[in-house]
Amino acid sequence: MLDITSIRQDFPILQQEVNGKPLIYFDNAATSQKPRQVIDALTHYYAAINANVHRGIHFLAEKATEAFENTREAVAKMINAPSKEQIIFTRGTTESINLVAASYGRTFIGEGDEIIVSTMEHHSNIVPWQMLCQEKNAVLKVIPINDAGELLMDEYLKMLSPRTKLVAVMHVSNALGTVNPVAEIIRLAHEQGAKVLIDGAQAAPHYRIDVQALDVDFYAFSAHKMYGPTGMGILYGKRELLEAMPPYMGGGEMIKEVSFKGTTYNEIPYKFEAGTPNIGDAVAMKAAIDYMQSIGQEAIAKHEQDLLTYATDAVATIPGIRLIGTAHQKASVLSFLIDGVHPLDLGMMLDAKGIAVRTGSHCAMPLMERLGIDGTVRASFAVYNTEAEIDTFAKELRKAAETLR
Amino acid sequence: MTIQEIQDEIIDEFALFDNKEDRYGYIIELGKKLAPYPEAYRTDDFLIKGCQSKVWIKPEIQNGNLVFYGDSDSTLVKGIVSLLLRVLSGQPAREIAAADLYFIDRIGMRQMLSMNRSNGLAAMVKQLKLYALAYTSTDTPN
Questions:
Q1: Which residues on A lie below 8 Å from B28 (Cβ)?
Q2: pTM of the full structure
């Protein structure tokens, strides 16, 4: 059993009141809060070791470079990557996906080739592929879902063909909580010779990811959803793919030699890391990984699953409530609507009580269209949330719905 | 009453509430009491699409003044529409076009609609003023 009371003490932001009530933060799928250990790591970096990385010959440059590269090592270990060179630092999941679309996509995807995404994707895993398809005259295909919010795997299987060059699917749905069968998605794609990118933004905070066991070609996620700093993303890729891909941006760090006759590029990962990187946040990301591992990723996942079960039961008796996303396998996301009440109104009423939830389409408009709704109210849980908070939330939700009807 | 007098009256009303919940409660009541919107005008021509909610505004000329009908699919936004209409509807078009709507800030409404949603509120105000401008430009003073 986790000691949630002591875990909560690690998060300064949770100690405050909002609108005169203790803050209840249920918007973790958007971004999670940061423990003192991460905030301290950031402060320490700027107070004691700030220098530009890789190029300096002085003491601080060496220290900063070491701290920066330690994070790469820690990320590689966390997701069981074969080498740390396969961990590319980006600004976030969105940039990771755009990097693959721009670099791998423009090089290896041509006219008539097919890219498969799913109905439930976040806009970040739709728009870059749409842009690529438009540029290359390639075809974008979409895996349909059932009403529970699960992928129709039979339809996916039918879509796959030798023309499929890439499959880009989310590991866990930010809007519904659905956990997708990514191992099977990857295996089936590989049988047709297609590569697979998994958007792991919503999975990395909850589950232990093993990129080798998954045999995934590209895996993207963000630090800020897993108790780490903002502006820090990861792209994992298979070595032979990363090496075959051209640079994404030109600039410093990504070159070996530059002359006006021609320029040679650096090795991976630096080939994809033009310019001064986000050193401070990269360093602090390691503190977030250490923090999660000190609690234990399995223990975090179990606590969150318990919270989801508890919350699902707690809201079940609210008149007119309809859960959006009732997949068999779900992460700690509770998306719902209440008949006759606008989700925006519910969100604002809960905010007046110090409860932070998300409302709207959750950057998944095609999914909302498929479900025939404009949006939902979404409560999403993290390690520091409690059953007592869920009790308050359910009580206030019931009250808000009555007031609004 | 002038636009300014009505705004001051609203500011006084909201001064009675010392928390967000009560302010919201009052806005919800106002929304529920808003005069019904003529269904014939629930069309895209009169729709202002915010980030998360829909608002319909329909202008009409009555006795040389501009009168507005409004509605929203969100109860709270409808309450805000009701306040805007209370301030502007029935006023001379010239004054609507030139109005400084300071009451929005003073009753914490801008903050209430938060940054990412205030574009909806801003769009609403802009639309009301555009109708007024359109009317004043065709309006020949005696």
A1: 345, 403-404
A2: 0.94
